């Protein structure tokens, strides 16, 4: 199996509508102002709730950011779950992940800015919390690479733990370059070249 319960269970079930409204408002505010310059009052205004309502769901602003990553990465993993099948080759599965990753960020510019900027938090505790949310995505890539090694489509000496980080980092850098360019070209059009580059190094 490409996916397992550890990978899929990023979120803990349906929460109140205001919780999601706050996260959506925070995503826009963080994207426009950066995490550290964003005020809780501005997030509340964007979400259409009172300032005090924020603290019914989150103890501090950092909790909003980590919850945002948990929810959005959870949604991504669910899309992977829907898009991947056991009949796919390892290359096809990696291509599907890259396609979903790029298309989701291309379709949500606020999410793209938040993921590219706030993944690089300088605060160690915050980085660790975000890393926990990201870990399940990385594990999924690792599972696909391991399967490719087992079925012989990837080189037997492929260093899975290294390649999984390089692959995610490569996709991350492609998105960053797209944002810096002012989105002057199609991000999803970069899926083929991105996967081809890595496949040349790991395919048998």
From TrEMBL:
SUPFAM superfamilies: Homeodomain-like, Tetracyclin repressor-like, C-terminal domain
GO molecular function, one term: DNA binding
Coiled coil: none
Keywords assigned: DNA-binding
DNA-binding region of this protein: 39-58
Keyword Aminoacyl-tRNA synthetase among record annotations: no
InterPro entries for this protein: Homeodomain-like_sf (IPR009057), HTH-type_TetR-like_transc_reg (IPR050109), HTH_TetR (IPR001647), Tet_transcr_reg_TetR-rel_C_sf (IPR036271), Tscrpt_reg_YsiA_C (IPR013570)
Any Pfam family hit: TetR_C_4
Residue ranges occupied by any HTH tetR-type domain in the UniProt entry: 16-76
Listed GO biological process terms: regulation of DNA-templated transcription
Protein name: TetR family transcriptional regulator
Organism per entry: Paenibacillus ferrarius
């Amino acid at each position: 199996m490409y996916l397992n319960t550890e990978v899929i269970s990023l979120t803990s079930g349906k929460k109140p509508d205001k919780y999601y409204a706050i996260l959506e408002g925070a995503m826009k505010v963080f994207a426009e102002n950066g995490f550290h310059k964003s005020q809780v009052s501005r997030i509340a205004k964007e979400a259409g709730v009172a300032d005090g309502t924020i603290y019914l769901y989150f103890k501090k602003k950092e909790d909003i950011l980590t919850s945002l990553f948990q929810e959005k990465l959870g949604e991504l993993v669910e899309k992977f779950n829907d898009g991947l099948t056991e009949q796919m080759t390892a290359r096809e599965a990696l291509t599907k992940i890259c396609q979903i990753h790029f298309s989701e960020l291309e379709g949500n510019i606020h999410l793209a800015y938040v993921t590219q900027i706030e993944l690089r938090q300088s605060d160690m505790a915050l980085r660790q919390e975000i890393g926990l949310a990201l870990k399940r995505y990385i594990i999924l890539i690792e599972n696909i690479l391991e399967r490719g090694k087992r079925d012989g489509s990837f080189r037997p000496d492929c260093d899975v733990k290294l390649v999984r980080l390089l692959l995610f980092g490569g996709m991350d850098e492609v998105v960053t370059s797209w944002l810096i360019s002012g989105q002057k070209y199609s991000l999803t059009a970069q899926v083929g070249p991105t996967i081809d580059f890595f496949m040349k190094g790991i395919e048998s």
